[in-house]
Amino acid sequence: MIVNMTKCQFIKPKYAKLNEFAYLDNDTVSYFEHLLCTQWFGDDVFIIGESAGSENTKYGKEALTKLEDMIESFNQTCFDYIMDTFERLEIESGHGIHRYIVNHHAKEYIIQKNGNINAKEVAALPVLLALGNNKYAGSYHGHNMHLAGIWINSIGSIEPTDIKPPQNYRIFNPDFYEKDKIKDKFVLER
Predict the structure, then answer these.
(1) Among 63, 122, 162, 164, which lies 20 to 30 A Cα-Cα from 55?
(2) What angle do CA 12, 14, 15 make, to 5 degrees?
(3) Nearest by Cα to 36 from 27, 46, 50
């Protein structure tokens, strides 16, 4: 699910697992982008799966530990606590995908395709903000899996936009795709 820790809100996609909803051609991702550039801009927002926990995440340990501390007395998983106590937002359709996803903190950006989007093209933003992406079912296991969650510490400075970023920003191409769909792709090392 997509969670705003600052506003205690969440979006639960129709298909709950990251590897089921993190595609460019769907309402969940376009609504997530819309929220990030409007009322959620600057907030602490993450993708949290059912198996998320600070013991099994490479990035975002601080964010997960904070959440685990909040729920310690409730004897629940992070996922269940959020479902029970945060406000659920219904997904709105018709927002579309932005041309760029800009990380102002890292001074880098992703160019997303606009127009003819393949329904199974992996959306980089949810994967880059995934807390607890791991070996469990539902996590992203495709190409460049090691980059999953790498933008977590920059969340307050991430902006979906159609305006080209400043010239001193560099293009970042995480090149996410499902391993069984495309073969022999160049591996980007970061």
Answers:
(1) 122
(2) 100
(3) 46
Residue with tokens 């949810």: 126
pLDDT digits (tens, 9 = 90+) for 55-83: 556 666 777 777 777 777 666 777 888 88
**Three-state secondary structure readout of the chain:** CEEECCCCEEECCCCCCHHHHCECCCHHHHHHHHHHCCCCCCCCEEEECCCCCHHHCCCCHHHHHHHHHHHHHHCCCHHHHHHHHCEECCCCCCCCCCCEEEECCCCEEEECCCCCCCCCCECHHHHHCEECCCCCCCCCCCCCHHHCCCCHHHHHHEEEECCCCCCCCEECCCCCCCCCCCCCCCCCCC
* Cβ atoms of residues 50 and 9 within 8 Å: no
| Residue 182 near residue 143 (C-beta atoms within 8 A) | yes
Distance in Å from the first CA to the final CA of the chain: 27
Instruction: Record the tokens describing residue 61, joined without a space.
Output: 């340990």
Residue 114: the pLDDT is 52
Triad 134, 175, 157: Cα angle to 5°: 75
The C-alpha atoms of residue 83 and residue 53 are separated, in whole angstroms, by 16
Whole-prediction pTM: 0.83
